[in-house]
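Narrative of activities, Objective 1.

The group set out to show that a structural description can be obtained from nothing but a protein's sequence at a throughput compatible with the screening campaign. Below is one input-output pair from the validation batch, recorded exactly as produced.
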Amino acid sequence: APLAASATPVSISRLDLSKHPHARCMDGTPGAYYWVKASAPADADKWVIELQGGGECATKAMCDQRIGSNLASSKHYPPVESSSGFSFLLSEFSGNPTRTWNRVHVPYCSQDLWMGQRTTNASDTFGFYFAGHLILEAIVADLVADGALDKATHVILTGESAGGIGVSPNVDWLAEQVNAGATVIGAPVAGFYYYADPYTGPGHTQSGLAD
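Output recorded for this entry:
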């Protein structure tokens, strides 16, 4: 039988720049997240945090192309999102064992593979902010304050593509923010690849990636 699924409408939580002045998207707008609270009391101390993917930009021309889109700004993030658009570990499919946990979807607007810690938009960053890690840092601080994330017993940090790459450099840091006895794991999806010169030989694609 097919897996049954439902969807939960989730309101956006925008980061308060007066509290987290460095948690900015590329264009300076605040980072944001969507939090579905645990639906089972027994799972109130269990969390899944998903880092959205969406490539990266490493030149001014590439970064300029992102401006005006959700990959560089939170300006047009929907005020309410459906959980049906999140990844499997955040979904409500009956086969998902984490469907009753706290589930946090973090949109990607920094184009830095979730590693950036730049606090200014300067000439050497093409006039943009690259603060992916600082956005995650601020979200975790909010969830500690509002959801007792630091008391968690189980935490999964996941993400796909660029978000999957972002799991590895952030998962140990995340483990340090929660209960020392918690089980904290990284579950990257399609996030194990590295920079390389694009292959241009026989059978190459037009994607610009290293085939």
